[in-house]
Each structure stands twice: as structure tokens, then as C-alpha cells.
Specification:
about 425 residues; alpha/beta; TIM Barrel; Sulfite Reductase Hemoprotein, domain 1; 2 domains; eight-stranded parallel β-barrel; five-stranded mixed β-sheet; 14 helices; 19 strands; about 45% helix; Dihydropteroate_synth-like_sf; 4-hydroxy-3-methylbut-2-en-1-yl diphosphate synthase (flavodoxin)
């Protein structure tokens, strides 16, 4: 390959495996499965009885990019608050579907509060605690019948921490009779999967359509989650919700969730995701939405906001200026994206590069829509700017950050079609 060919070479983009062929489920204006883009969802941590506070947090999550928001519905007062929450959201122009999370008493709450049953966009039930003993089947049936009556889809969400113990005991007995018994982990995974699949089959027997059912089988271990979802994906065509339950706080939760979900999404498994982060004290709940979006976008599955490539820095870049510029650009993009998303078509696909020295700076800048290569130690005090692969100008002096942001603004205005045009 000649030098000129090397300079113009663009590597072939690798892509994820084709999406698993799942049944599509309609939830308001949102489609989960059926070939639709992977949907981002989140959950509030407010007291649902506080209608104003819960509506406020739902709106914040929706504006951050959550396409469904789940709320706890655990008491009669919480159920009674749901239609008021829906009314407040409608008044704010926030049409995100609300998912009601029911445990233990969902059958009673839906029966007692029909306005709640109507206002919710979807119900989530846990087959491990929907009912116990002889009452389990009747409680489960009552919720499914409510979903049918009000035209709502249902997520049947089995969880490692609340497995149906009757199911576990039955599988342990089966395992004991095997000539080559499974280990305890394999039995637990099978119990989780069967709990979801058998519950889905019962829901269909009661009359809930297949395209109204979503399944999830959540665990808190990365390898266990991958194993469970690979297995259930091969045994059904229901839409699947992915999430590492109780992922944790900060970098641990982000790393664990990304490791598990990244593998599954790469294999085409998963129709909707949640990153179950424990928020840092004083930090907004919206952080989990941002992580979910960044995971999907960095994998090339969806685009939500322009991505900024920035070098980590080394001995050539002892100045912190490139770090400050990268932070400024990233902050500007996030602040402007709500406006840009409404005004311009395709702006979420824009790529930016802020580089710190001559080694990789020009090359990375050429690969981005807009890139800047700042001078490293001992380099000439000049910062070439590249637009769509071509060097267009060189910035110098103390106003580089403001000038670069203005270049970015001008590019957006001229490059992307106005949605009103």
C-alpha cells in the first residue's frame, strides 16, 4: 500500500450480529422488539405517592432520553397517584409510557384502582412473588386479565433474588434423578428461565396475546447474565428486556453492566435495556440513562448525541488545555442537544475529536466531522482544525475554545437539514 493510499485508507466498519428475530410489542408510541431499535428505559426512586415529585423525575429521565420509565406501585396510595402523575406529565408535554412495577399485591391494586390500570403503559410482574401457594395462579391470572381488559402489555420479570421456591424445589428434585447432575448454578439459571417461560405460557393460555409479552431474567453476575440470556434467547421469540440487576455504584456498576450487556447486544440479543446504577449521593438519576445511550452508541447500534473522541494525555501533553477543551466541547454538545434534536435532522451522528499532540492528533481529527489537534510539548503553538477530513484553518492564541465552539455551531447550522425545512 502506497503512502497516499495509507493516508486515505478507512478501515471497514465492523457491525454487531443481526438482531434476534423477536415479536414486536407496542407500548404507547414505543416499539420493543420486532426489529425496532433497542429501547432505553429507566426507573424512578421517588415515593410514588408523591405525584408531583415522581412526575418531575419521570420528566427529567424522559428528557435525558429514557423512552420508558418504570415506577413502583406498592400501596393503595401509590396506585391512586398514578393517574395524577400521568396528568401532570401530559400537561408538561411528556408522553413517555409509565411502567407499573408490581410485587405481592398487584392484583389487588389494579382491581381497586382502575384509573391506575388505565394510566399505565405497561405492567411489570415478578413470577417469584406474584402470589404464593394456592393463591399464586389466581393472583397471576388477575393481573393478566387486567392487562387484557385495559389493552396493556406485560413484562414478566424473573429475578435471581426472588426466585419461585416451588420451581427451585421441583428442579432440584429433577436434578437429583439425573445420572450426571447439574451444578447448583445451572439449576438456578434453569429455574429463572423456566419461571419466565412457563409464566408467559400461562399468560397466553389466559388470553394475553404473544405480542403483548416481554420477558426478563435478571441476575447480578456478568457471566450468569450472559449465560441466562443466551439460553432463553434460543428457546423463545418473546421480546427481551436486558439488565444486570443491582449493578452497583459508579465505575463498578457501569463496567459490570457494559460488560454483560455489550456481549449480548453484540450477539443480537436484547430489545430494551436498563442500566441499574446506584446513584452517587447527590447525583441525578439520569446518569443511568446516559450510560445506556453511550453503550448503544459506542457499539454502533443507535445514535443519540455527537460523540467526542479525546486522547487520554501523556508526557507530550502536560498542559491541561486539551482536557479543558474536550470538557467544554462535550458539555456544549450535551447542553445544545435537546435544541438540536428538535431542529436538525441527523445531528446525533456527528463526530468530534479533541486531540493533544501531533502523534495521533491530525489523523484522528481527519476521521471526525470536526477535529482539532492542539500543540503538545515543544510543538509550534498552533492548532489545525479539520472539517470532514480536510484542514480548513489554524487557531492560535487564548480564545481557541470559544472559536472552536463557534466553528461547531456553524457546522451544525450549515451541515444538517432543518426539520422544519
Amino acid at each position: 500500500m502506497s503512502e497516499s493510499e495509507i493516508q486515505t485508507y478507512r478501515p471497514r466498519v465492523a457491525t454487531a450480529e443481526p438482531r434476534r428475530n423477536s415479536v414486536g410489542v407496542q407500548i404507547g408510541k414505543v416499539t420493543v422488539g420486532g426489529g425496532a431499535p433497542v429501547v432505553v428505559q429507566s426507573m424512578t426512586n421517588t415515593d410514588t405517592e408523591d405525584a408531583a415529585g415522581t412526575a418531575k423525575q419521570i420528566a427529567e429521565l424522559a428528557r435525558a432520553g429514557s423512552e420508558m420509565v418504570r415506577i413502583t406501585v406498592n400501596t393503595p396510595a401509590a396506585a391512586a397517584a398514578v393517574p395524577r402523575i400521568r396528568e401532570r406529565l401530559d400537561m408538561m408535554g411528556v408522553d413517555v409510557p409509565i411502567v407499573g412495577d408490581f410485587h405481592y399485591n398487584g392484583h389487588q391494586l389494579l382491581e381497586a384502582e382502575p384509573a391506575c390500570a388505565e394510566a399505565l403503559g405497561k405492567y411489570r410482574i415478578n413470577p417469584g412473588n406474584v402470589g404464593f401457594g394456592k393463591k399464586k395462579d389466581s393472583h397471576f391470572a388477575a393481573i393478566i386479565e387486567a392487562a387484557i381488559r385495559y389493552g396493556k402489555p406485560v413484562r414478566i420479570g424473573a429475578n435471581w433474588g426472588s426466585l419461585d421456591q416451588t420451581m427451585v424445589a421441583r428442579l432440584m428434585d429433577e436434578n437429583g434423578s439425573r445420572s450426571d447432575p447439574w451444578d447448583a448454578g445451572a439449576v438456578a439459571r434453569e429455574a429463572l428461565i423456566r419461571s419466565a417461560l412457563e409464566s408467559a405460557a400461562k399468560a397466553e393460555e389466559i388470553g394475553l396475546a404473544r405480542d403483548r409479552i416481554i420477558l426478563s431474567c435478571k441476575v447480578s453476575g456478568v457471566q450468569e447474565l450472559i449465560a441466562v440470556y443466551r439460553d432463553i434467547a434460543g428457546r423463545c421469540d418473546y421480546a427481551l428486556h436486558l439488565g444486570l440487576t443491582e449493578a452497583g455504584m459508579g465505575s463498578k456498576g457501569i463496567t459490570a453492566s457494559s460488560a454483560a450487556l455489550g456481549v449480548l447486544l453484540q450477539e443480537g440479543i436484547g430489545d430494551t435495556i436498563r442500566i441499574s446504577l446506584t446513584p452517587e449521593p447527590g447525583q441525578p438519576r439520569t446518569g443511568e440513562v446516559q450510560v445506556a445511550q453511550e453503550l448503544l452508541q459506542t457499539m454502533g447500534l443507535r445514535a443519540f448525541t455527537p460523540l467526542v473522541t479525546a486522547c487520554p494525555g501523556c508526557g507530550r501533553t502536560t498542559s491541561e488545555f486539551f482536557q479543558e477543551l474536550a470538557k467544554t466541547v462535550q458539555g456544549h454538545v450535551r447542553a445544545k442537544m435537546p435544541e438540536w434534536r428538535v431542529k436538525y435532522d441527523g445531528v446525533e451522528n456527528m463526530t468530534l475529536a479533541v486531540m493533544g499532540c501531533i502523534v495521533n492528533g491530525p489523523g484522528e481529527s481527519k476521521h471526525a466531522n470536526i477535529g482539532i489537534s492542539l500543540p503538545g510539548n515543544g510543538e509550534a503553538p498552533a492548532a489545525p482544525v479539520f472539517i470532514d477530513g480536510e484542514k480548513k484553518m489554524t487557531l492560535r492564541g487564548d480564545n481557541i475554545a470559544n472559536e472552536f465552539v463557534q466553528i461547531l455551531e456553524n457546522y451544525v447550522e450549515t451541515r444538517y437539514t432543518s426539520r422544519g425545512a
